[in-house]
Amino acid sequence: MALTTYLEAIREGLLEEMRRDESVFVMGEDVGAYGGAFKVTKGFIEEFGERRVIDTPLSESAIVGAGTGAAINGLRPVLEMQFADFMACGFDQITNFAAKCRYRWGASVPMVIRAPSGGGIHGGPFHSQNPEMPYVHTPGLKVVQPATAYDAKGLIKAAVRDNDPVIFLEHKNLYRSIKEELPRHDYVVPLGLAAVSREGTDLSIITYGWMVHVALKAAETLAAENIDIEVVDLRTLMPLDRETILASVKKTSKAILLHEDTLTGGLGGELAGIISEHAFEYLDGPLVRIAGADTPVPFSPPLEEAFLPNADKVVEKARWLHRY
Amino acid sequence: MSALATASISQEVTPDLANKLLYYMVMMRELEDRIELKLYRQGKILGGCYTGRGQEAIPTGSAILSRPDDYVCPSHRDMAAFLIRGMTPREILAQYLGRVSGPTGGRDGNMHMGCARRRILPIISSIGASIPVASGIALSMKYRDEPNIVFNYWGDGATSRGDWHEGINFATVQKLPIVYLCNNNLFAYSTPLDKQMAVENVADRAPAYNMPAEIVDGNDVLAVHAATARAVKHARNGDGPYLIECKTFRIGGHSAHDSADYVPDGMREEWSKKDPILRLQKEMVDREWASEQDFKQLRQGILDEISEAVDWALEQPYPDPATLEDNVYEVI
User: Fold this and answer.
1) Which of A68, A244, B43, B121 could form a disulfide with A194 if both were Cys (CB 3.0 to 4.6 A apart)?
2) What DSSP designation does B13 have?
3) Taking CB atoms and an 8 Å cutoff, what residues of chain A touch B71?
4) Which residue of A has its CA nearest to B166?
5) CATH number for the domain that contains residue A103
6) At the top level of CATH, which class does the domain B15-305 belong to?
7) What confidence tens digit (pLDDT) does each residue in B152-189 have?
């Protein structure tokens, strides 16, 4: 049976949705004949033509604004930001226009903004960021980041079918580095549901995206030391699956909140707030955050390595928390 | 009441059309006067209060040419466009008063009104943001091969926003069916035009986008109407966007709180002589289509309609605080 990469899974999910629903179209920079900077839409223009695969000028605000207008008037745009970093150029359209339409005047904006995010590819300060938090912090937006090929396909399909704007963060370091066998049938992974990637009893690592794999690697090392780690993959960052988060913490009584995004103002703080409000009595140790450093993402390999969380850093903190 | 165009795009000016244009201009003027000079000053309306006093010819002469399936994206100085699309004075007053019966149910205020059913896009406060969105609405019309077009309104200040350039560049590259109506009222808040742009006219920017443009007297509703008819024909024909720059002047301040002391002496008086309502009335008298008595009657009827609408709106309930978190998402 053929294995499907994370990138290929997103591509297949999009293809299936475009074949299923005539109102779905893709739009962005270089998405047509070139197939997108990462080739997610390779071959789309041959199958669907220029009407449904729209190459745009280099104008993120126009891409998001036009997507919003098309969505208001009944289409289902899937927009590609070449890198998640460039969503900043469309920030006003995303947070002030699209996000507030339903609340202000009841208009649905069924739009997906796909954005390759994250580091580990030596992309430097503008091709490596994890800009999820401003969008998590904007009521009206949903924010998703899959960690597996299975979820990548199921979540992109759910995002396309959702009637609210969804920021779909694709970790570019996972695009071609992970693959798995996918079901042949049509499936979706519902938005708003976390997954337990590994069951354990001693300590929970709550994380998402590439860091799920880092957590799983750390868990292997710790298993040899008889420390039994549970890994929770959030999958959707907004809305958070509080039930799964709290169930895991209540089981293990210790939690590491791990993300690649920078520490201050990162999702870890929000998770810590939820856990201390709703599971304080279950905790046997402090909530520990492991995150990217509070710096821009540097380019040179030793600096980027120092910036990023990795399995060694997680193992060290987990040992400390386990002893606590 | 709705007065959307149904038939030919190059309507001759008839007494019937002139009467309609006059009705919407006077209704806009009187409704905004009631809002700004009465309800706002009485403390019944809180927050911002933006009027298009003196600019009534622009939304009136243009939106009257919109068809029901067209989309209209007005600015905050285009009250007549809302009225022409069928939004009632009752609803508009409920919006200003923050009542549940307004088009945003109290979630937003003043001219931030939209209505999907009547195909009116609400503006947001970051001026110019509706320009890319208008492109997307027009894109969806082209996508479905519909004969509809978008009317997109904005002022001189908006043309300095990146969104203006991005949105218009996108629309012209894609040849989208949009009529742009610029109300160049010489001031963006307090900033005069020569601090806004280095070209003399907004229309001077159009050749850079390979877009036809014309400049009209924005205080002459018949001139706006005639130019819009040409633009509508162009856009409906699939020839892409078309820009009409309407030269006008904002008689009031930016908002109700703004006394507009920055306007040079005599300028307001000079422009008040070009009042678009008085000009149309003079035209109608000259053509022997109406008399001063008719205008008095029209105005009185409108004032009565507004008074009834104010009474109604003041009786409407405020939104229930328990609904605060409703409709942030469809499903969460």
Assistant:
1) A244
2) P
3) 73
4) A62
5) 3.40.50.970
6) alpha beta
7) 999 999 999 999 999 999 999 999 999 999 999 999 99
